[in-house]
Design goal:
- The chain has two domains: 87 residues; 48 residues, no CATH class.
- The protein contains two helices and two strands, in the order αββα.
- The longest helix has 84 residues.
- It is mostly helical and 136 residues long.
- The protein has a two-stranded antiparallel sheet with strand order 1-2.
């Protein structure tokens, strides 16, 4: 019997077992890291879904508010047209001496600016006036 060869074979088997055990430990560690990463991805996907729903709801609310503003604007234009017919010199049409790009500012325009600014302050929007046209 070749004991030297047998010793080499047994040593190689021991080394192979040690390497296999180390590799299996690394595989288990990698599986745990993958499981953790998959869990984080699932949580991230759930948060994305939740935020997508929030955005969708906000887009719908914004659309409804935009439609409401369009309806109110139509009412104001109709009322203004009727007021011009019956009282063209009404004080609400008095020019302030300032002008928007689209034309002279009247007291009616001032009432819009004041209402806009008051709501901006109420909502705590910094520098709210930059979101409306300014008469100069």
């Amino acid at each position: 019997m070749d004991f030297e060869r047998l010793g080499h074979t047994m040593g190689a088997n021991d080394a192979l077992r040690i390497m296999t055990d180390a590799a299996e430990a690394q595989i288990l560690k990698a599986h745990a890291e993958i499981h953790k990463a998959n869990s984080e991805i699932l949580q991230g996907n759930a948060e994305i879904e939740r935020l997508s729903n929030v955005i969708g709801n906000l887009e719908t609310k914004l659309a409804v508010e935009t439609m409401h503003a369009a309806g109110l604007l139509a009412q104001v234009r109709a009322l203004k047209a009727e007021l011009v017919k019956v009282a063209p010199n009404h004080p609400i049409f008095t020019k302030t001496g300032k002008a928007y790009v689209s034309g002279p500012q009247t007291k009616l325009g001032v009432s819009y600016d004041e209402g806009f600014d008051a709501k901006g302050r109420e909502l705590g929007i910094p520098d709210f006036a930059k979101y409306r046209k300014i008469a100069k």
